[in-house]
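Re: [ENG-882] Designed sequences occasionally contain unexpected residues at chain ends

Forwarding the minimal case from QA. Structure tokens:
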């Protein structure tokens, strides 16, 4: 028989309050947060999409009747290498900014959480176990890192490549983009009741 050691799940109002505090932290650190959120996605676009597009263009040149010469292949090979190099550099700058946002945000949340806790009167501590309260404050600050990482890699990391793909596909066939967004909208509509039922 196993027991759940995570404790009770937080209520909806507690989650909304935590998200509000985390959002304020991102606004407070916006000079670091904006590159932290966007640059990893831009780097991934360069690595996963732009570089393969250059290779596909090179393969198209090789399939042409004229064949592939060094003069025709060199711009694509250099572009491929330069794209990978720049994408890695952009990704690493974004990762550095993300680490700074995580560290500065957690530090500020730890301090402000402890300030809020220390501002309480003695009756509050009689009704609540102090060790549990400090553990919750520390957990609140630590989860900021999980929140920012999720927003960076799961949300922004999916939306920015989606926009890039839509722009590229639009230049070939606009109906592909319309179909793509229609399928995404239908998926969201179908999944929303299932997500609500699970909560």
């Amino acid at each position: 028989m196993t027991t759940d050691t995570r404790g009770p799940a937080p209520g909806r109002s507690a989650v909304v309050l935590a998200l509000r505090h985390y959002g304020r932290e991102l606004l407070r650190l916006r000079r670091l947060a904006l590159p932290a959120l966007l640059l990893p996605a831009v780097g991934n676009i360069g690595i996963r999409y732009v570089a393969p597009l250059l290779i596909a263009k090179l393969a198209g040149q090789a399939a042409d009747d004229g064949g592939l010469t060094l003069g025709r292949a060199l711009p694509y090979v250099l572009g491929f290498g330069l794209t990978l190099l720049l994408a890695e550099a952009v990704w690493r700058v974004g990762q550095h900014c993300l680490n700074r946002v995580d560290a500065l945000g957690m530090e500020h949340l730890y301090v402000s959480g402890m300030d809020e806790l220390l501002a309480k009167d003695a009756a509050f501590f009689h009704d609540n176990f102090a060790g549990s309260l400090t553990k919750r404050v520390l957990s609140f600050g630590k989860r900021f890192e999980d929140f920012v990482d999720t927003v960076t890699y799961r949300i922004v990391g999916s939306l920015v490549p989606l926009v890039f793909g839509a722009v590229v596909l639009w230049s070939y066939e606009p109906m592909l983009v319309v179909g793509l967004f229609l399928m995404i909208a239908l998926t969201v509509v179908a999944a929303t009741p299932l997500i609500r039922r699970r909560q």
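QA comment: On inspection the terminal residues look reasonable. The two ends are 25 Å apart (CA to CA). Proposing we downgrade this to a documentation issue.
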